[in-house]
Amino acid sequence: MTAQVIPETVTPEAVQGAARMLEVRVRRGEVFQTFAVARRPNQTVLDVVTEIQREQDPTLAYRFACRVGMCGSCGMTVNGRPRWTCRTRVAEAATGDALVLEPLRNLPVVKDLAVDMEPFFEKWRRAHGYFEPGEAPPEDFAPVRPDEPERRKADAGIECINCGVCYAACDVVAWNPDYLGPAALNRAWTLVNDVRDRGQEARLAAVAGDAGCHSCHSHMSCTEHCPKALSPTFAIAGLKRETGRAALRRLWRKA
Ligand code: SF4
Ligand code: SF4
Ligand code: FES
Predict the structure, then answer these.
(1) Catalytic activity, per the record (predicted)?
(2) Under a CB-based contact definition with an 8 Å cutoff, are residues 230 and 223 in contact?
(3) How far is the CA of 16 from the centre of ligand 1 (A)?
(4) Which of 46, 64, 72, 152 has the CA that lies 20 to 30 A from 249?
(5) Which residue's C-alpha comes closest to atom 1 of ligand 3?
(6) In terms of CATH, what superfamily is 118-254?
């Protein structure tokens, strides 16, 4: 083995990091390709993928934008677990010195680690995950106090960054590709609690169907994996209650 030459300017941490190598297995279609990457202090999984793409194989496809946990575009499966990779340190995700990287589950693969998010966002549309101002919205801003119960319920789910990690973690999506999934339903719940919105009846009908909130098995995988510590399971439980109340209201109107 040839001796490693280390420049005098590197820190002791870097020396320690450089002495260890990561074995990174990357799924590329039906096969895995193995790369060796030096371990470095505070290295993230996204750093590793970027180093492979820049230093070893420029054809490797993956997606990222902000690198600070805001854009939601860097989701991948890391050692079997869906994660945001820009905020996941190698030290917490690797098994020893081994990383296995795969695309997010439950979405079509475009190439290598990049998935097509269109089906994910199509379900947001199907769940009416957009604000409905109504025919004649008031001209003034609606006063909504931060301590109002509805505002608090909406707040609990509003920080979603659309990363798809919960969607990849959900077994019901895997069994039933039509299922709206945790992120779209969580978004619908924030809007159900938006007192300014005028599209509630249609939204509740949209999430009450066969592929909607009542298909959720409440096994909390989405909640366990969400990198923003949101609880789509809680939001879906709220939708189950509200869709039930809406059904009763319809019955009373008919009676
Ligand atoms: S709680 Fe519901 S939405 Fe969340 S992972 Fe389980 S089945 Fe999917
Ligand atoms: S609910 Fe959490 S895991 Fe799901 S898309 Fe939003 S931020 Fe990502
Ligand atoms: S790159 Fe934006 S959230 Fe990871």
Answers:
(1) a quinone + succinate = fumarate + a quinol
(2) yes
(3) 42
(4) 152
(5) 67
(6) Alpha-helical ferredoxin (1.10.1060.10)
